[in-house]
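We store amino acids, tokens; thus:
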Amino acid sequence: MATVASSRAASGDLVIEASRDRELLERFMSRDRIFAAYAIADMDDTEFARTRWGVAFEGGDPIAVVMEYRGLSPQPLFVMGEPRAIRAILADTIRTRIAYLAARPGVAPSITDLYQVDAGAAMLRMWVDRASFRQVSGATVRLDAADTRHLNRLYELGLTQWLPAESVATGVYHGVRRGGRLVAAAGTHVISRTYGIAAVGNVYTARDVRGQGLAKQVTSAVTAELLESVGQVVLNVRADNAAAVAVYRALGYREHIGFEERLVRRRLSLWDSIISPIRRYLPTLRRNG
């Protein structure tokens, strides 16, 4: 049985369940496949074990889904559906402590009793398929795991944050080199050939070579390769980044929906507020004892 836990929410008219039922989850999220693209791709066998899912039902029908991607904190937290039902799932089943919340506008106010919600950027979800894609040529090269250190140098990622070689090896990355130096690159966040969808990300151009169309070239190369094996490719971009939006439009990407990306921190219960300082103090005692 796919459902592994069930409990009735405080509102009395919702049933909240933890679920591993990929058919149910895909059916619900396919109501807006482009908005749910990352979460749908995370149902792939390579990613599904890292996810936790909660579903809210009303009258036997699903009306909201929450997905937590487990890993380094803050974790990605995707929500879709009616705000009151999303809140019920977060109160009852998916109790993430700190996360980057991806949600449609209007959801964040419904969870402020559960979470401290930081101000976040207004984002756009854009997408392309084979019919709309307009490829551009350029002197790009396919990158692999051996290029990971060059990518991390380009992205200026420090010791506390880096792109792992595994992500490069299993993803699709293209770059531009000048004099042996990697000066532009684009890659992927997630790919699911099972569900026919992928997400472009990590698009970056070195500061000293911007304005030469390199971001368009590397994004085009990654998109072209992805569309050989999936039907739809999505990406996220800040709504106020007009230059980036123009680049993606030129490649045939279309705006689908605006959404918010916010850092959220779980509000502590009275017990947590008492015990948390003690937990923080104990390691100090152990180090000094």
